[in-house]
Amino acid sequence: MRRKTRIIQISGLRGLLFAGFVVCCLAAGFIAFPAFVAMHIWNYFGQFIGLPVINAWQGLMLWAITAISGFIINDRKKFLVALKAPGQLSEDEVKTILERVKIHSQAQAINSMILKSGDVKPADKTEKSEETSEKEKENV
Predict the structure, then answer these.
(1) How many Cα neighbours within 13 Å face the side chain of 68?
(2) pLDDT at residue 134, as a whole number
(3) 8 Å CB contact between 64 and 30
(4) Could you tell me the residue ranges of all domains in the chain?
(5) Is 84 helix (H, G, I), strand (E, B) or coil?
(6) Angle at CA 18, nearest 5°, toward 79 and 85?
(7) What burial letters (b/e) apply to 62-93, b meaning 16+ CB within 10 Å?
(8) Which long-range contacts (CB under 8 A, 24 or more apart) does 29-33 make?
(9) Taking the chain, what is the end-to-end CA distance rounded to the nearest angstrom?
(10) What is the DSSP string of 85-98?
(11) Which of 20, 36, 122, 140 is deepest in the core (most CB within 10 A)?
């Protein structure tokens, strides 16, 4: 079951410095840079529309609102969260997790079909009987 997996171990001062460097780079790349881009785009288009000028903190909040809205709206991607490391799961546990995922996906498909079928209106028997009685009256 195990494939060639590598585990990153942080040991010593060198490992802590490397981890700090990685965290700083990720924060700069996914938080600070998009915040400054959002700020500059807002300020650029604000000149034409008459919007107030925002600073870097407000750009950060604008980016946060945009990112969180994107995550909330885009719920099509599902994530599986396991509390154990993959190496610690036995084959039986992996099979049960995969069975649960399969059952969950089938249940979602069935639920969506049920919800879609709710849009179709069933034919009322009372309407048919009224129509036939009206036709009979017209024939007499």
Answers:
(1) 6
(2) 61
(3) no
(4) 10-77, 79-140
(5) coil
(6) 35
(7) bbeeeeeeeeeeeeeeeeeeeeeeeeeeeeee
(8) 31/60, 31/63, 32/60
(9) 81
(10) -GGG--HHHHHHHH
(11) 36
Cβ atoms of 62 and 39 within 8 Å: the answer is yes
Using only C-alpha atoms, the chain has a radius of gyration, in whole angstroms, of 29
Give the pLDDT score at 10: 75
Cβ atoms 80, 93 nearer than 8 A: no
> How many helices (H) and strands (E) in the chain?
5, 0
Write out residues in the chain with pLDDT < 50, as ranges: 1
Q: Tokens for 140?
A: 């007499």
Map tokens 């879609």 to a residue.
116
Predicted confidence (pLDDT) per residue in 14-31, tens digit: 888 888 999 999 999 999
- Classify each residue of 49-58 as buried b or exposed e, where b means 16 or more C-beta atoms within 10 Å of its C-beta: eeeeebeeeb
